[in-house]
Amino acid sequence: MKTALVIGGGGPTGPHVVEGLRQRGYKVAVLNRGVHPVPLPDDVERIVGDPHFIDPLKEAIGTRSFDLVVASYGRLAVIAEAFAGRAERFFGIGGFVGYRGFYVPETMRPSGLPIPTPEDWPLVTDPAEHRFASLVAAAEAAVEKHHSTYTLFRYPYVYGPRQLVPREWSVVRRVQDGRRGIVLINGGMGLISHVYAENVAHALMLAVDQPAKASGKTYNVGDEVQLDLRQFVELAGDALNVKLEIASVPDTPATRIAALAPLTDHKLMDTARIKADLGYRDVVPTIEAVQRTVRYYNDNPLERGGEIEKRM
């Protein structure tokens, strides 16, 4: 039987990835710190370990190797090194934040990212430009160094149940508190790529099914239909059966504190490659996905002042 290790598994995509692998005949194990447990089938092995550091990670896996490792949590460079020679295939999950111009638009001319941004757009390699973005790029380089049969996925914001910083809750809580106004910078006309959890898991399964095409490739991932923030708020209101009034304000330090998701430039990823190579199409349409997610948080409200609200 083929074996797969999913590192993470407690976020929005984890259960969908695990189920997709089970359906394909893999014996699946999930490794994480056990901080955010989710229900998993009884035949899924649970391994407790810290994927942020090489020594505890190696201690957790011992001498084991796997046909497939999906590294979706922890430090990707550490995981890539730990599984060198121990994974027939290695899926590295990174993010689109590594592109030059994402965090610091003025480093590019014209400023910001091209719309849409392709996979071959330059990454941040100098920590002086942006330290975290440079670490994202360095982690991808580590995957390529240690695994010849890698596939890299650059995620945008992933939405759905179990998101650790759910944008939807910001709207749901306002509605539950009886408020009907939402402040948006520039009327919420900014675009930033998003992907629904079931859709991104589907993207990974397409790569599982097509190793010859996916090996050695890097893919941007995102819903086929992208919404700006104004459209998201409209759909959230529809899902909650309320009329939400949008207050448009200019971009200032004061309005950034008050506004929902103060996006002031476009960050839209080009997903043409994964569509052409692997035949990606959304399995859940964007409008349905957004409204499903909003209703989930309405039915499963977060703790007021709790851990997730503090994180937000």
Can you put this structure into words, describing what you see?
The chain contains 12 helices and 11 strands. It is of the alpha/beta class and 312 residues long. The protein has a 7-stranded parallel β-sheet, with helices on both faces.
In short:
This protein has 312 residues and is an alpha/beta fold. The chain has helices at residues 14-23, 54-61, 76-82, 131-146, 167-176, 197-209, 211-214, 229-240, 253-258, 272-278, 286-299, 307-311; strands at residues 2-7, 26-32, 45-48, 66-71, 87-95, 150-155, 157-159, 181-185, 194-196, 217-220, 245-249.
Tags for this model:
single chain; 312 residues
What is the tally of beta strands?
A: 11
Separation, N- and C-terminal Cα atoms? 42 Å
What is the alpha-carbon Rg in Å?
20 Å
Share in β-strands: 15-25%
Overall shape: globular
Strand order across the largest sheet: 3-2-1-4-5-6-10
Structural class, by secondary structure, is: alpha/beta
Order of helices and strands: EHEEHEHEHEEHEEHHEHEHHHH
Largest sheet descriptor = 7 strands, parallel
Portion of residues in helices?
25-40%
Number of helices: 12
- Mean model confidence by pLDDT: 94
Low-pLDDT residue intervals, each spanning 5 or more residues: none
Layout of secondary structure:
Layout: E1 2-7, H1 14-23, E2 26-32, E3 45-48, H2 54-61, E4 66-71, H3 76-82, E5 87-95, H4 131-146, E6 150-155, E7 157-159, H5 167-176, E8 181-185, E9 194-196, H6 197-209, H7 211-214, E10 217-220, H8 229-240, E11 245-249, H9 253-258, H10 272-278, H11 286-299, H12 307-311
Parallel strand pairs: 1-2, 1-4, 2-3, 4-5, 5-6, 6-10, 7-9, 8-11
Helix pairs in contact: 1-6, 3-4, 5-8, 5-11, 8-11
